[in-house]
Design a protein that fits this description.
The protein is an alpha+beta fold and 214 residues long. Helices cover 36% and strands 24% of the residues. The chain has one domain.
């Protein structure tokens, strides 16, 4: 009995085609899974960078409050920035090697003193976390305005908003600051926050000249 050779060759050819199709489909699925994984990793990385930038800007608002308090004491005591700051011929000060101050009296700024939004060209002071005064590196810009507001003359204690000296007052005035903090981080990320912070004037007036650290 003779075998049908023609039929056997056709079957082998059909199996080869099916195998190639299966291999093609599996390869395509593998490529798509790899691309999806790479995309997820990129999204996760970008999210991490932008969260870091946001928290840097958020933390910058606390640094700004400390510097505003110090600057207000120094200005009111007449010491200014003469104690520890290095001031160049353009009235630009460097504090602790990491803070660039381009407006020596920033605590007394008013809304009319500020033109436009915060940027590298309109900032009052800048913090460089790596102590490298270079805008191509990570840095946080600050801009602020202030206005004097009256405090109610009741028995309600007005919190100064700062942990030292920690005094309170039942009357008088306070300064209400609007602080803008803008952090420039990795991969050209940028985040800007604005907060309001109140400083009771009695806290400043009761501080000694020695409290001026600038």
């Amino acid at each position: 009995m003779k075998k049908d050779k023609h039929n056997s060759i056709d079957e082998r050819g059909f199996i080869l085609v099916i195998s190639l199709l299966i291999l093609l489909i599996v390869s395509f699925l593998g490529i798509m899974a790899t691309k999806s994984t790479i995309t997820e990793i990129m999204i996760s990385g970008n999210d991490r960078v932008h969260k870091q930038t946001f928290y840097q800007a958020d933390g910058g608002t606390e640094l700004a409050q400390h510097l505003l308090f110090q600057n207000q004491i120094c200005l009111d005591s007449g010491n200014g920035f003469s104690k520890t700051a290095t001031i160049d011929e353009n009235d630009v000060a460097i504090l602790n090697g990491s803070i660039l101050v381009s407006n020596l009296g920033f605590a007394n700024s008013r809304p009319s003193d500020v033109a436009g939004s915060i940027s590298d060209s309109t900032r009052f002071f800048t913090y460089y976390p790596d102590a490298t005064i270079d805008d191509s590196a990570a840095h946080t810009n600050f801009l602020n305005t202030s206005r004097v507001i009256p405090l109610p003359g009741s028995s309600q204690a007005m919190i100064s908003g700062y942990d030292r000296p920690g005094l309170s007052s039942t009357s008088g005035t306070a300064k209400l600051f609007t602080i803008a903090s803008q952090h420039h981080g990795q991969q050209n990320s940028e985040s800007t926050l604005k907060v309001r912070w109140m400083l009771n004037n009695s806290v400043v007036s009761s501080s000694a000249k020695s409290d001026c650290k600038f």
